[in-house]
Amino acid sequence: MPVETHGKGNRITVAEDLAVGRVGYGAMLLTGPQVWGEYPDREGAAALLREGVEAGVDFIDTADVYGPHTNEILIHDALHPYPKGLRIATKGGFVRGGFDYATLDAVGNANYLSQSAHMSARRLGVEAIDLYYLHSGRATDVPFEEQVGTLADLRQQGLIRHIGLSNVTLEQLRIAQGIAEIVAVTALYNVTMRAGADLLRAAEQDGIAFSPWHPVTLTDGPAPGPEKAREVLAPIAARHEATLQQIALAWHLHRSPISLPIPGTTSLVHLRENLAAQSIRLSDEEVAGITAITAEP
Q1: pTM for the complete prediction?
Q2: pLDDT score for 222
Q3: What whole-number distance in Å separates Cα of residue 15 and Cα of residue 258?
Q4: Residue 124 carries which DSSP code?
Q5: How many whole angstroms separate alpha carbon 108 and alpha carbon 145?
Q6: Cα dihedral value 182, 187, 190, 193, nearest 10
Q7: Which terminus in the chain has less CB density within 10 A, N or C?
């Protein structure tokens, strides 16, 4: 179903049974260095998750490769049984052989993806995963169409409720939409880097959710983007008595009604600030000024 926003724009309906706040929480940072192993302060991470949910987080994004596995287990241990209304998205398709990022690879065969989804559901302690992303479109062991077909089969079986795509091209999104209903797509998109601009436009056209990652990063992209971003954002932040990151988040929400940013943080203060960004009302001129910081492909 097409994405809908409600009230003052602070909620988004991704699917008929998947309505969440406009700002979610990306849990990837609650892992060890280089997203490998346990977060050093596991009790502190669990407390952050619990307090974040109490503060209003109702959409958490994770993946089996975060840790690997430790992130999903942490979410379960901190929050299960889950409070009513909390929705969790996870992903499968990446594998990792060690601490070095060079060991990251993608696998797409049906047995692997099926096992990944089953194990994610087991680690999270759910019978059905709210939103399950194919984490990468780069696997070459089987055709992309077969990977999407596997997720469609898992949805038919009831293991996953909805399908999303991450790290895919626009062409792959279109191929996937011919095989299964895709309700969300994620891509790199922020104030200084618009790599996912074509996917955002496609998501707007089709009425599906667009979840930008690195949504509050101000240092992506070549010069003079990062320096220009601070020059543009600073006076806007001063007018709204907000941080630069809050203005960046508010820009996402004003930029597109289908945007569902998932900023990550290990700080409860920053998490609360991220949620508060939903209440910032930017003028059309402010939105246009931020949009003009860098060109969109």
Answers
A1: 0.96
A2: 85
A3: 12
A4: H
A5: 10
A6: -140
A7: C
For range 113-120, the mean pLDDT: 98
Cβ pair 264, 216 in contact under 8 A: no
What tokens were used for 254?
């004003």
Span 263-276, pLDDT tens digits: 999 999 999 999 99
Q: Cα–Cα distances in Å, from 97 out to 67, 120, 181, 200, 219? A: 11, 18, 32, 32, 29
Q: What is the mean pLDDT of residues 253-259?
A: 97
Q: Note whether 132 and 163 are within 8 A (CB).
A: yes
Q: Round to the nearest angstrom and report the end-to-end CA distance of the chain.
A: 28
Q: How many whole angstroms from its chain centre is CA 44?
A: 22
Cis peptide before 224 (omega within 30 of 0): yes
Long-range interactions of 116-119: CB distance < 8 A, separation 24+: 116/64, 116/92, 117/92, 117/151, 117/154, 117/159, 117/160, 118/159, 119/64, 119/69
3-class SS of residue 206: helix
Those residues with Cβ within 8 angstroms of residue 126's Cβ, 6 or more apart along the chain or in another chain: 82, 88
